Amino acid sequence: FIVLDLLRLNGLAAFLEDRFGGRVCPMMFTPEQTDPFVLCVHHRHSFWWWDPVRPLFSLLLPEGFPAHPHRGFETVTYMLNGAMTHRDSTGVRQRYGKGCVQWMTAGRGMLHEEMWDTDLVSHELYQIWVNLPARNKMVPPKIQLLGEDCDAKPDLKLGAIPEYTEGGCNVKVISGAYAGVRSPVSTH
What we know:
With 188 residues, the chain is mainly beta. It is 14% helix and 46% strand. It has four helices and 15 strands. The protein has helices spanning 2-6, 10-19, 31-34, 54-60; strands spanning 20-27, 37-47, 64-70, 73-81, 83-88, 93-97, 101-105, 110-116, 122-131, 142-146, 150-151, 163-166, 169-172, 177-178, 181-182. A hairpin with a 4-residue loop joins strand 5 (83-88) and strand 6 (93-97).
């Protein structure tokens, strides 16, 4: 679909993207420009029942991100729409959806997978990888969830995303603090 954008066929690209598949747009920079951020990516995927290519793709490629390792950084996944099921080597299995944030500290290492909830048609998320300081690279793996639309063990759920509103602007405090509103997420 990016080729269609380059040909200035943005409307056609958007229509096809909505109906057949999606888009993954990583934002890559040099380490000097982004430290401590390793990666920032925008995912947008559609699972339309009548997609003529989907049966072939689902035979060849899983609908999500099968088991893969992480170590030495944290991933912050903010679901704008849709839902994912997360499963990992620490024994966690959870589902989180629209408006939820999963904060995963890989630390000394973990194997995990994230699979799309294909019963839902449209999925969109942002994911940021945050490099851990050298002194924290070997901390134990940990999962934390913010938001209402999550199905997980109670000890992983931190409640709703704290918000601050002023002058018609709404700030969601995912980590740290802003204007006296503090996130319950524990960061390194």
